[in-house]
Write a structure and sequence with these properties.
This protein is mainly beta and about 240 residues long. About 10% of the residues lie in helices and about 35% in strands. The strands form 4 sheets. A 4-stranded antiparallel beta sheet has the order 1-2-3-4, with no helix packed on it. It has a 4-stranded antiparallel beta sheet with strand order 5-6-7-8, with no helix packed on it. A hairpin with a 6-residue loop joins strand 9 and strand 10. The longest helix is centred in the N-terminal third of the chain and has 22 residues, at about 1-25. The chain is globular. The relative contact order is 0.09.
């Protein structure tokens, strides 16, 4: 028992040192702190949300941290409140395949959403409109997998599927950045930078201000915690 206690305490002490160094702006090698067991011990189950009839592929918070949106293989979007077990909105989106991405539109008080799915459709929806307010703002040749709003913007977002695409909801004029990527994340503190994950085992950082899109930084994931990775299914800035 003593050995088990000592072994579990060591990663905790290491994690504390990493957090303290991070707060001081220092870069620290995470090393073994990225192992799944260490992450698992730090999470506590607070609530089950049951409502979809298919696999849940995407979950996202709104700006207030009180509302959650989820999308599923059942082609439905469910909206939840953190303190309630049942969804307060169930929206059957006009997709023809599994929903992989769903987000609240920033600044709308969780009243507007965007979704993307395996059918390539990218849809905007006003949940409080009394008329049919679904609008297709982009159609990709392949699957729509992820979408990400730029910080402090309610109209500009990046889409990930076969390539990374930039779209402004005010004009619906897409700009294909010609970057292969199935996942994308924007740096919340430096919104001109975005990370891309793809079928390769490399995470790349790009600069939206650049005319020609070449990576400004790259990380082969085979270096992380000594684990061999095959493709990147998602990438998120901390």
């Amino acid at each position: 028992a003593a050995a088990a206690t000592s072994a579990s305490a060591a990663p905790a002490r290491g994690w504390t040192r990493w957090l303290q160094a991070r707060q001081r702006g220092l870069r620290v090698d995470l090393g073994g702190l990225l192992t799944p067991d260490v992450w698992r011990r730090r999470f506590v189950l607070q609530r089950h949300f049951v409502g979809h009839s298919g696999c849940v592929n995407t979950v996202a918070w709104d700006e207030s941290g009180q509302h959650i949106i989820s999308g599923s293989d059942d082609q439905c979007v469910l909206l939840w409140r953190m303190n309630e077990d049942k969804p307060y909105v169930r929206e059957r989106m006009p997709h023809f395949a599994n929903i992989f991405g769903a987000k609240f539109v920033p600044g709308t008080g969780a009243r507007q959403i965007v979704t993307c799915a395996a059918d390539g459709l990218h849809l905007w929806r006003d949940l409080e409109s009394t008329i049919d307010s679904v609008r297709t703002f982009y159609v990709s040749r392949g699957m729509g997998i992820r979408l990400e709003f730029l910080p402090q913007s309610a109209s500009c977002l990046l889409l990930a599927g076969k390539h990374i695409v930039s779209v402004d909801l005010r004009t619906d004029e897409p700009r294909n950045l010609r970057i292969p990527g199935s996942s994308v994340s924007v740096d919340p503190f430096r919104p001109h930078l975005f990370a891309v994950g793809s079928d390769s085992s490399i995470v790349q950082i790009f600069d939206l201000r650049a005319v020609r899109q070449t990576a400004v930084q790259s990380w082969p994931l085979s270096r992380v915690a000594g684990v061999l990775h095959e493709g990147v299914s998602d990438v998120v800035f901390s």
